[in-house]
Amino acid sequence: MKNTQNLSPIIYLVVPCYNEQEVIRISLEALHSKLSSLINAHHISKQSKIVFVNDGSKDKTLEILKENKNDKTIIINLSANCGHQNALIAGLEYSLDKCDLAISLDCDLQDDIDLVDSMIDKFKNGYEVIYGVRDDRSSDTFFKRFSAESFYDIMKVLGVNIIRNHADYRALSNRAIRSLLSFREANLFLRGIVPLLGYQSCKLYYKRNARVAGESKYPFFKMLSFALDGITSFSVQPLRILSIIGATISLASLIFGLWALITYFMGRTISGWTSVVVPMYFLGGLQLLGLGILGEYIGKIYKETKNRPRYFIDSIID
User: Fold this and answer.
1) Pairwise CA distance, residues 109 & 35, whole Å
2) How far apart are CA 13 and CA 73, in angstroms?
3) Regarding the domain delimited by 11-235+309-317, which CATH topology (the fold level of the hierarchy) does it fall under?
4) Can you tell me the distance from the alpha carbon of 234 to that of 155, in angstroms, rounded to the nearest whole number?
5) Rounded to whole angstroms, how far apart are CA atoms 285 and 303?
6) pLDDT tens, N- to C-terminus, the chain (318 residues)
7) How far apart are CA 54 and CA 70, in angstroms?
8) Could you tell me the strand order of the sheet in which 129-134 lies?
9) Chain centroid to CA 65: how far?
10) The whole model's pTM is what?
């Protein structure tokens, strides 16, 4: 039986992990301490738990989790690496109907865990979706800051409803989790899906901490792939833009052809290879770009039609 929002709610912290042996002990200690302090203050129920989802780690992450497990820890061990978004869904699906509020956060402790207190307060005040949002990016490199801001600008231009500077640090009520799990698409981009739920939501701002140990699991090319997934999963605008560009170039080509025909009858010819080679390379590059964009969307359709399971659970240690 779940508690109402007016009582001490049951809270599950959902933490995906992949090759985090350098930081996992620190995360365990910090999250256990946070959960205990909230329970002792009667802010949350004694039934609250921390759900670690081991996403097919190849290092000692799972062994360390098992060695340091206590009665407040649940370990979901996926049979293979399924990706951060799928691991997160696995944790939320396990939490469904077991808690009042599930809070997802990264294992590296860059998300300020003290924000959990405010998330719980907002939930008690009736909010069902609470976003943790970075208040600045001054700690990022120039390139990372520029690329991140450009991504959000592009998503906005393409008409995608996405929370700026929000990653996957969020709190979801049990009802919001159930609604989220009704989205069955294979190409998961939770930052774009969650705002579609429509429940009462709010933003809480925090300063992102430096990574305590280990290294980022999202290098440049993985981040680029993630961004492309987000764009192509939520907008068909790139296809429309491609159509507009194609129509514009066709019109320009027609005008250029008429001009060339007129100059021919006037006794003047177009000299040099530039007028031939430059348009040829330009149109060739545009065609390859168009094929690439079409390929992205066809690939999405291919993945969706296969309807493969998002993940397989090897074991659950509760």
Assistant:
1) 14
2) 10
3) Spore Coat Polysaccharide Biosynthesis Protein SpsA; Chain A (3.90.550)
4) 9
5) 27
6) 444 455 789 999 999 999 999 999 999 999 999 999 999 999 999 999 999 999 999 999 999 999 999 999 999 999 999 888 999 999 999 999 999 999 999 998 888 999 999 999 999 999 999 999 988 766 666 667 777 777 777 777 777 778 888 888 999 999 999 999 998 887 788 888 899 898 999 999 998 877 666 565 555 566 666 666 666 666 656 666 766 776 676 667 667 667 766 766 676 655 554 566 556 656 766 776 777 777 777 777 767 677 778 889 999 998
7) 16
8) 201-206, 129-134, 166-173, 101-104, 11-17, 49-54, 73-78, 313-317
9) 25
10) 0.74
Site of tokens 């009520």:
173
